[in-house]
Write a structure and sequence with these properties.
The chain is of the alpha/beta class and 379 residues long. The protein has helices spanning 41-44, 47-60, 70-78, 95-106, 120-126, 148-157, 170-173, 208-221, 227-238, 240-259, 278-284, 299-308, 351-361, 367-378; strands at 63-67, 85-90, 110-115, 132-136, 161-165, 183-187, 201-205, 266-268, 291-295, 313-314, 324-327, 341-345. The strands form two sheets. The protein has a seven-stranded mixed β-sheet, with helices on both faces. Strands 8-9-12-11-10 form a five-stranded mixed β-sheet, covered by helices on one side. Strand 4 (132-136), helix 6 (148-157) and strand 5 form a beta-alpha-beta unit. Helix 2 runs parallel beside helix 9. The longest helix has 20 residues, at 240-259. Pyridoxal-5'-phosphate binds at residues 69-71, 94, 96-97, 136, 140, 165, 167, 187, 189-190, 199, 201.
C-alpha cells in the first residue's frame, strides 16, 4: 500500500510520481472541470500533500493532516483546546514539546500537570480534572513505554481526549487510534522522511469534524508544508518499511552488545527483555524501533564518545538512514535526563561498522574486554 498509493492516474503518459508543483495559486474555473476548486495552496492544498495524507491516514486508520513540521502539527492539536484547559503531560517527552507546553502554561493558555507516565495509577488519578492526556511512547529520550489502551480507556471514561506522539514508533510499528487515542502526531522529519533532509509534521484524527478543525488551524496559522519537502517525504515513505527493518535489527543487536559492555551502566531499548516496558511494547507494537539510549557514568565520558565516533554522526535528530548520537541532558528542559545518557538513532549502516565505531569510541580502559567480545563474535 505504501508503495502503491498516492500516485497519479494510471493513464499512459502520466508520471509515476506526483510531480513537484511549485505553485501558490491555481487558475480559477468551474468546479466541474477536473482539478479545479484548488485556488490557493495554503487553503486548498497541493497534490503532494494529499498523496502523503492519504498514505499516512490509511496506515493510522484515520484522517491525516500535513503540517510544516512536527511541532506545527503538535501546536495545531493543542490549539483545539479551550482557553485554560488542563493538560496531563509526561515528564519525559520531546524537548520541543516540553518547551511549547511550558510556554503555554506560563501565559495561562493551559494548565500543565506533569507526571511520570510509567506510573499509570498516578496518571489515572490526575485525569478527573484533565481535558487532554498527552502521551509519547516510546518516549524521547528515555524510551519509556506507556500502555496506550489502558490509559485511553481510563481517559475515555472521564471524557478526556488522548493524543499520542507516535514519532519513534512510526505508523508501521504502532497505531494509537486503534488503541483508543483521539489524535496521533508524527514528526515526519524523522523516520517517515528518513534522510535528514526535510522538516514535516502530520496530525491524524478519527473524526471528520476534527480533521476540518485541524485544516482550519493550518489554513489560518499558515503552517503549510513546502512542495519539495512533500515530494521528498513521499519518496522517503516508500522505503520506510525496509529502512525500519534494518534500523531495528541493528538497534536490537547494538542494545544487546552495549548492555554487555563494562563502560555502559544501562541500556534503554524496548526490545531488551530487561526493559521495564518490554511487555507493553511487545503487546502494543509491531517491532521495537530504531532508537535506543545508553548511559555512561559521566557527562564528560559521554561527550568524549560523541567526539570520537566516525561512522555514527554526532548530531541531533533521528530517524535517518544515517546513525546519529547525542547527549540529550545538555538541552534545556531535559534536567530529568541522566547526564551521561546518549541517545542513539540507529540507521541502516552495516552492523559491524556501527559496533566497531562504538567500541573504538567507548572508554579506552575497556578496550581489552571489548576486543575479547569482538573475537567471541567472530567465532
Ligand atoms: C523531532 C520530534 C518532534 C518535533 O518534530 P519537528 O519535525 O522537529 O518539528 C516531536 N516529537 C518527537 C518525539 C520528536 O522526536
Amino acid at each position: 500500500m505504501i508503495i502503491q498509493e498516492g500516485r497519479p492516474d494510471h493513464r499512459p503518459g502520466q508520471p509515476l510520481n506526483v510531480p513537484v508543483i511549485l505553485a501558490s495559486n491555481f487558475r480559477a474555473g468551474p468546479p466541474s472541470i477536473e482539478g479545479s476548486g484548488r485556488e490557493y495552496s495554503r487553503d486548498d492544498g497541493t497534490p503532494a500533500w494529499e498523496a502523503l495524507e492519504d498514505i499516512v491516514g490509511r496506515l493510522e486508520d484515520g484522517s491525516a493532516v500535513l503540517f510544516s513540521s512536527g511541532m506545527a502539527a503538535i501546536a495545531a492539536v493543542l490549539d483545539l483546546l479551550p482557553l485554560g484547559a488542563t493538560v496531563v503531560t509526561p515528564v519525559d517527552c520531546y524537548s520541543g514539546v516540553r518547551a511549547l507546553l511550558s510556554d503555554g502554561d506560563a501565559i495561562g493558555r493551559w494548565k500543565l500537570r506533569t507526571v511520570d507516565m510509567t506510573r499509570p495509577d498516578t496518571v489515572k488519578d490526575m485525569l478527573s480534572e484533565a481535558d487532554l492526556l498527552w502521551l509519547e511512547t516510546p518516549s524521547n529520550p528515555l524510551l519509556d513505554l506507556v500502555d496506550i489502551r489502558d490509559l485511553a480507556t481510563a481517559a475515555r471514561g472521564l471524557g478526556v481526549a488522548v493524543a499520542v506522539d507516535n514519532t519513534f514508533a512510526t505508523p508501521l510499528l504502532q497505531n494509537p487510534l486503534a488503541l483508543g487515542a483521539d489524535f496521533v502526531v508524527h514528526s515526519a522529519t524523522k523516520f517517515i522522511g528518513g534522510h535528514s533532509d526535510l522538516l514535516l509534521g502530520i496530525a491524524v484524527c478519527k473524526e471528520p469534524a476534527q480533521r476540518e478543525l485541524l485544516i482550519r488551524r493550518r489554513e489560518v496559522a499558515g503552517a503549510t508544508p513546502g512542495a519539495l519537502e512533500c515530494f521528498l517525504a513521499l519518496r522517503g515513505i516508500r522505503t520506510m518499511s525496509v529502512r525500519l527493518v534494518q534500523s531495528q535489527d541493528n538497534a536490537a543487536e547494538l542494545a544487546r552488545r552495549l548492555s554487555e559492555h563494562p563502560a555502559v551502566a544501562r541500556v534503554r531499548y524496548p526490545g531488551l527483555p530487561t526493559h521495564p516496558g518490554h511487555d507493553i511494547a511487545a503487546a502494543q507494537m509491531n517491532g521495537f524501533g530504531g532508537v535506543l539510549s545508553f548511559e555512561l557514568a559521566e557527562a564528560a565520558t559521554a561527550d568524549a564518545v560523541c567526539a570520537a565516533v566516525r561512522i555514527i554522526h554526532s548530531a541531533t535528530s533521528l530517524g535517518g538512514v544515517e546513525s546519529t548520537i547525542e547527549r540529550r541532558a545538555k538541552l534545556p528542559g531535559q534536567e530529568h535526563v541522566p547526564p551521561g545518557l546518549l541517545r542513539l538513532s540507529v540507521g541502516c549502516e552495516h552492523i559491524e561498522d556501527l559496533w566497531r565505531d562504538l567500541l573504538e569510541a567507548l572508554p579506552a580502559a575497556n578496550i581489552a574486554t571489548a576486543g575479547e567480545h569482538n573475537i567471541a563474535l567472530r567465532a
